[in-house]
Design brief:
The protein has 394 residues and is α/β, with parallel strands linked by helices. 35% of the residues lie in helices and 22% in strands. The chain contains ten helices and 19 strands. Strand 6, helix 5 and strand 7 form a beta-alpha-beta unit.
């Protein structure tokens, strides 16, 4: 583990956050809104730099098109918000459910304004907004749409998350190889998952300052043999063994910005069947990477990628799309799927993760987090993808 990033800060500057806010203001203005009120935790982090553990107590951002952002928090979060260097204006309410509606402190700001709320707001929160502020907020996706395209400071966070994700994969492979060489029992799925998670968070705390703690910081899914035929199967007590196909589906969040890196490995010399499946997915992933470029509709990239698996006669084993957007959420729009016509744009980060899942045998998936560039796409994660590189022997 090398200290390449000793002074690396996970926090965006106030100037960068202001740029993000201005983009949302412009989008809200274009939609005919006077302000946006969002209680989505990822939106809150995006617009203010305040990361928190969501509970029943509302935390929200008021962002007018013609004024400064205001962060609404319960009193118990106010000190934490200020300590994180969030927006200068922090407004408190006493407690939840409260004698007074928690959104009431924003009522004067909202009077007579057309206010947008995110599509993720619950019915209960919307009722509280209406009653506490005497407004009728309208649904909008302007914040989410602005989150699609990452600014340079955000891309730097994604790049660092990619570096750490690669280190996590390397650590998982080393653990299996070391056990083989020592003729020790191979790790269980759960043991390997715990190991790679410790590696990821360990790098952050050793090499970074201002570490941003989110619900999922580092780790992922580890599964072997027939267990890997479930695309999102959770790690179990199954102990890996020679001859297994197994998957490391890993990732981490730096500054709240996610990256994923997934590789499928074979323990011991691959069979003809394992080689066929692995190579088919590798080819599909390669085609998928070439299909990701600015201006290309998400659905077209998906079609090109998955066609490789269909043409190889493996369509019955395809259970999911090519990929999805990545940002403050590990899974977020846009979706690289037949139903999403969104054009890809420079600065987006998306996953490229075709896979096949053979019941009773194994799953095969290769995933990289891709940065859409001016002319195409760049894989932020870089662990080798070939079967030769993904074969683990003593």
């Amino acid at each position: 583990m090398t200290a390449q990033t000793t002074a690396f800060s996970q926090r965006l500057t106030a100037e960068t956050i202001e740029v993000l806010q201005d983009a949302v203001r412009a989008a809200a203005t274009a939609e005919g809104l006077d302000a946006v009120l969002t209680d989505d935790p990822d939106d809150v982090a995006y617009l203010t730099g305040f990361f928190h553990h969501p509970t029943e107590r509302p935390v929200a951002v008021w962002l007018p098109v013609d004024g400064p952002a205001v962060l609404l928090v319960p009193r118990l979060e106010a000190g934490y918000a200020r300590a994180q260097g969030a927006v200068a204006q922090v407004v408190e309410y006493a407690e939840y459910p409260g004698v007074t509606n928690p959104f009431a402190p924003l009522a004067a700001l909202a009077a007579g304004r057309r206010v947008g709320h995110p599509l993720t707001s619950s019915f209960l929160r919307l009722r509280m907004m209406r009653e506490g502020m005497d407004v009728a907020p309208v649904p909008t996706d302007v914040v989410m749409a602005c989150r699609y395209v990452k600014r340079p400071a955000e891309i730097a966070l994604h790049r660092e998350a990619a570096r750490i994700s690669d280190l996590m994969v390397e650590a998982g492979v080393a653990a299996v190889r070391d056990a083989l060489r020592a003729d020790d029992p191979l790790p269980t799925e759960a043991e390997l998952a715990a190991l790679v998670g410790r590696v990821g968070t360990g790098v952050m705390y050793e090499e970074h300052r201002d570490v941003v703690v989110v619900g999922f910081m580092a780790g992922g899914l580890v599964y072997g043999g027939a267990n890997s035929s479930y695309p999102h199967g959770l790690p179990s007590g199954y102990r890996l063994q020679e001859g297994d196909t197994f998957m490391l589906s890993l990732g981490c969040a730096v500054g709240g910005r996610f990256v994923e890196c997934e590789r499928t490995f074979v323990i011991g010399q691959p069979t003809e069947e394992q080689a066929r499946y692995h190579e088919a997915v590798r080819r599909a992933q390669e085609v998928g990477a070439s299909a990701i470029a600015p201006g290309v509709p998400c659905r077209d990239a998906n079609t090109a990628c998955l066609a490789e698996l269909m043409d190889a006669g493996l369509g019955e084993y395809v259970l999911h799309r090519q990929g999805h957007g990545i940002g403050l959420g590990m899974h977020e729009p846009p979706w690289l799927e037949d139903g999403d016509p969104t054009p890809l744009a420079e600065g987006m980060v998306v996953s490229n993760e075709p896979g096949i899942y053979v019941p009773g045998h194994a799953g095969y998936r290769i995933s990289d987090s891709m940065l859409v560039t001016e002319t195409g796409a760049e894989a932020l994660t870089s662990y080798p993808r070939s079967l030769a590189d993904c074969t683990i022997t003593a």
